[in-house]
């Protein structure tokens, strides 16, 4: 009665906020979605979705179907991966979720290299301001996460270390003075990146003697895109906290200068979260190896205000 394409269609529909959103995901018209849903319901003799405008609301039967469908599709995907693995092939879909800036600048080129090396891989990169939050979905193979994890039970691989620094333009520091202690930051304009549902206004430091200092800043500017916040800092709006991966070029070109170098910020290592269903697939193993290799080759290494 039901075939694999029907299960894929219905799980996509059930996860969408509306029929129109499902149509965009499926790359068809909303009317085509409605027609196909009606056909499936007619074949089953069951109503799966409550009719009406607004969000998709499943009936009890629809909820039962989507839960079973996810299990069936996961099992089928694992079976396909096992069979591909037995042949020694590196092939199949590869869905990666990564932060906007880091994903676009660093992860995308690495995926491109892997796709050239293994043409049978089908990469699908999703950039998000909250990649870790996407772990609630089953539709991913690897999530690139930067910083501390709230849930350590997920399978994870460290890709590279990632130090964080405070920085601002030379002109801003000349006009407003250079802070020497965390408390002095309260007198300065500071910018934050609102992402990963983190507490971005609490800045914590360790001084040269190992003592810890924490302050709650009042953001003078903010965005959910780190590149926007960095661009504003380069225009002289104030002081920002950025990863060493983000500010290498700006430091080299003297567009930004490090601030309070004697104080150490907590690191935000780059890690890969691996979906349990994709853990032992060849394509995922090769991507992780490629990510670790490329990150080691390209790590900027900012040490004491210098680029290593």
Quick description:
By secondary structure, the protein is an alpha/beta fold. It has helices at residues 4-15, 19-26, 30-44, 60-87, 100-117, 170-176, 226-234, 244-252, 282-298, and strands at 92-99, 121-128, 142-146, 155-160, 164-168, 190-193, 202-206, 212-216, 221-223, 239-243, 257-259, 264-265, 270-274, 302-303, 306-307.
Radius of gyration from CA coordinates:
24 Å
User: How would you write the strand order of the largest sheet?
Assistant: 2-1-3-13-4
Q: How confident overall, as mean pLDDT?
A: 87
| Unreliable stretches | none
Helix content: 25-40%
List the helices and strands and how they pair.
Blueprint lengths: L3 H12 L3 H8 L3 H15 L15 H28 L4 E8 H18 L3 E8 L13 E5 L8 E6 L3 E5 L1 H7 L13 E4 L8 E5 L5 E5 L4 E3 L2 H9 L4 E5 H9 L4 E3 L4 E2 L4 E5 L7 H17 L3 E2 L2 E2 L1
Parallel strand pairs: 1-2, 1-3, 6-9, 6-10
Antiparallel strand pairs: 3-13, 4-13, 5-10, 5-11, 7-8, 7-12, 14-15
Helix pairs in contact: 1-2, 1-4, 2-3, 5-9
How would you portray this structure in words?
- With 308 residues, the chain is an alpha/beta fold.
- Helix content is 40%, strand content 22%.
- The protein has 9 helices and 15 strands.
- The protein has helices at residues 4-15, 19-26, 30-44, 60-87, 100-117, 170-176, 226-234, 244-252, 282-298; strands spanning 92-99, 121-128, 142-146, 155-160, 164-168, 190-193, 202-206, 212-216, 221-223, 239-243, 257-259, 264-265, 270-274, 302-303, 306-307.
- The strands form 4 sheets. A 5-stranded mixed beta sheet has the order 2-1-3-13-4, with helices on one face. A 5-stranded mixed beta sheet has the order 9-6-10-5-11.
- The longest helix has 28 residues, at 60-87.
- The protein is elongated and about 75 Å long.
- The N and C termini lie far apart (62 Å).
């Amino acid at each position: 009665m039901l075939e694999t394409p029907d299960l894929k269609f219905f799980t996509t529909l059930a996860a969408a906020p509306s029929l129109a959103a499902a149509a965009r995901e499926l790359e068809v018209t909303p009317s085509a979605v409605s027609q196909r849903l009606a056909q499936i319901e007619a074949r089953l003799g069951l109503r799966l979705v409550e009719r009406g405008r607004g969000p998709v609301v499943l009936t009890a039967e629809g909820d039962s179907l989507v839960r079973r469908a996810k299990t069936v599709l996961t099992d089928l995907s694992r079976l396909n991966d096992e069979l591909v693995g037995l042949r020694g092939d590196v092939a199949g879909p590869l869905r990666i979720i990564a932060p906007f800036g880091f994903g676009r600048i660093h992860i995308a080129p690495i995926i491109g290299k892997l796709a050239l090396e293994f043409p049978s891989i089908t990469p699908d990169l999703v950039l998000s301001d909250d990649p870790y939050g996407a772990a609630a979905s089953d539709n991913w193979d690897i999530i690139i996460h930067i910083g501390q994890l709230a849930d350590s039970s997920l399978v994870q691989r460290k890709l590279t270390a990632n130090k964080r620094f405070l920085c601002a333009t030379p002109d801003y520091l000349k006009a407003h003075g250079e802070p020497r202690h965390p408390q002095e930051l309260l007198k300065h304009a500071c910018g934050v990146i609102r992402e990963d549902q983190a507490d971005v206004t609490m800045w914590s430091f360790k001084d040269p003697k190992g003592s810890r200092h924490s302050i709650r800043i009042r953001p003078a500017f903010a965005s959910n895109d780190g590149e926007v916040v960095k661009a504003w800092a380069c225009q002289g709006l104030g002081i920002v906290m950025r990863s060493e991966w983000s500010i290498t070029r700006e430091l080299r070109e003297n567009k930004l200068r490090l601030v309070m170098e004697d104080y150490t910020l907590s690191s935000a290592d780059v890690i890969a979260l691996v979906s349990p269903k994709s853990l032992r697939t060849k394509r995922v193993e090769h991507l992780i190896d490629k990510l670790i290799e490329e990150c080691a080759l390209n790590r900027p290494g900012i040490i004491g205000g210098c680029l290593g």
